[in-house]
Design brief:
Strands 1-2-3-6-5-4 form a six-stranded antiparallel barrel. The longest helix is centred in the last third of the chain and has 36 residues. It has two domains: 66 residues; 41 residues. It contains three helices and six strands; from the N terminus they run E-E-E-E-E-E-H-H-H. It is an alpha+beta fold. The chain is elongated, with a radius of gyration of 34 Å. A hairpin with a 2-residue loop joins strand 1 and strand 2.
């Protein structure tokens, strides 16, 4: 059977060879459309179909299956769905508390720097003792 294949009003193929396969039609095209693409067929069969599977290379084409009414019509489901609620925890910090937290952070840094320096000194001492 021969079919004309169009996508969004653009003709992709005229007189493309097609055969029934796996509950749909395998349409031979050099450059098949991606899976999930809605196409219109006309010619020996007229239908709105969705690409179910793609075969590239020698004998390239796509398996298309008839689209049911739910998938054939485009509905903005994402826009209709309510946005999830996001809770944001807020805290108030006084300047004194912020300064105390900053001092605590700095003192932790100083201690780790001291630890690193102390460890370096210990390694130097051990290296000198071996020589």
């Amino acid at each position: 059977m021969t079919l004309d294949v169009s996508w969004d009003g653009v003709v992709l193929a005229k007189s493309a060879q097609a055969r029934e396969q796996d509950g749909g039609w395998f349409v031979e095209l050099e450059q098949p459309m991606p899976v999930g693409t809605k196409l219109q067929l006309s010619g020996d069969t007229q239908a709105t179909v969705l690409v179910a599977r793609v075969h590239e290379g020698i004998g390239s084409g796509m398996l298309v299956k008839k689209a049911d009414e739910k998938t054939a019509s485009v509905t903005p489901t994402a826009a209709a769905a309510p946005a999830p609620a996001i809770s944001v925890a807020t805290t108030t910090t006084t300047p004194a508390a912020a300064a105390a937290a900053a001092e605590g952070d700095e003192s932790g840094k100083d201690e780790s720097a001291k630890d690193e320096n102390g460890a370096k000194k210990e390694r130097r001492k051990k290296g000198r003792a071996k020589s």
